[in-house]
Specification:
With 260 residues, the protein is α/β, with parallel strands linked by helices. The protein has 10 helices and 9 strands. The model has no long low-confidence stretch (mean pLDDT 94). Bound molecules: 2'-O-acetyl adenosine-5-diphosphoribose. Residues 21-23, 26-27, 32-35, 38, 100, 131, 175, 203-205, 208, 211, 229-231, 246-247 line the site of 2'-O-acetyl adenosine-5-diphosphoribose.
């Protein structure tokens, strides 16, 4: 069947790339952006543009504190889908995980399966966080990156906007609307998509760039493209295999077939 086909191709492939979106973290309790109860139902994308951050950092941080509360409230942990990918990475079946998520859960899963070298630039499975990481902030003047928790706490306590020791304003270390993805990151993602023999798009609506073009690029470069998503996507026509089931059922099943 479809999963067998994906598993066979993964076993035969030299380069397998997983590309993930909010749907992979939904079973961990992190809300998705679109669809019922999506984050963009509660907030307006316009509140989080780069232009607004520059124009009105106080207002931006007011809203960002709320967004952080809605998205990352309480404890959330990697689920069976993150863990299946991490285990396949550790076992040499996965070249890279490209993620649009900023929740850091792929990194945590890699650590929990004992693939601690998995990180940007490591030799093991590359985890490329295309949209940055919500658990970090970065000073827009001196460029220093620091753990976000204490800064979000300071912001929640009323420091608007939170600032670095150097006096510069902190910005969540994520890509805002109207902000370019770093050129090196997007080039790396594109070349991985081109090189891939199997490209799995997992839990993404595939409506924003570069999400929409990466699986198409992989397909036109000859990869087997699999889409794992509860709903249809605009890229379904370019896919070889479409699996419309929960990520926490599908990914462990693929892993079992690959590693059996
Ligand atoms: P979306 O919220 O647009 O899409 C999530 C997809 O996951 C939907 O198509 C759901 O059907 C699917 N899904 C949800 N739960 C699932 C589950 N348990 N199993 C399988 N599929 C499931 O999220 P993204 O595609 O990641 O950008 O959104 C892309 C970008 O748009 C985000 O990174 C964010 C947003 O604006 C920035 O913040 C820059």
């Amino acid at each position: 069947d479809d999963l067998e086909r994906l598993a066979d191709d993964i076993r035969d492939a030299e380069t397998v790339v997983a590309f993930t979106g909010a749907g992979i973290s939904e079973p961990s309790g992190v809300p998705t952006f679109r669809g019922d109860d999506g984050v963009w139902d509660k907030f307006d994308e316009g509140q989080f543009t780069y232009g607004r951050f520059r124009r009105d950092p106080e207002g931006f941080w007011n809203d960002r504190v709320e967004l952080q509360r809605v998205m990352f409230d309480g404890e959330y942990e990697p689920n069976a889908a993150h863990e299946a990918l991490a285990a396949m990475g550790r076992d040499g079946y996965l070249e890279a995980i490209l993620t649009q998520n900023t929740d850091g859960l792929h990194g945590e899963a890699a650590e929990s399966v004992g693939d601690e070298s998995a990180a940007e630039e490591a030799d093991e499975t590359t985890i490329l966080e295309l949209h940055g990481n919500s658990q970090r902030v970065r000073c827009i003047d001196c460029g220093k990156r620091v753990d976000g928790d204490p800064i979000f706490e300071r912001a929640a306590d009323g420091e608007r906007p939170p600032t670095c020791d150097c006096g510069g304003v902190y910005k969540p270390d994520v890509v805002l609307f109207g902000e370019q993805l770093p050129g090196a990151v997007i080039q790396r993602a594109r070349s991985l998509a081109r090189e891939s023999d199997v490209f799995l798009a997992i839990g993404s609506s595939l409506v924003v760039e570069p999400a929409a073009s990466l699986p198409r690029l992989a397909a036109s470069s000859g990869a087997t493209v699999g889409i794992v998503n509860l709903e249809s996507t605009p890229v379904d026509g370019s896919a070889d295999v479409i699996v419309r089931e929960d990520v926490t059922d599908v990914l462990p099943a693929i892993r079992d077939l690959v590693e059996k």
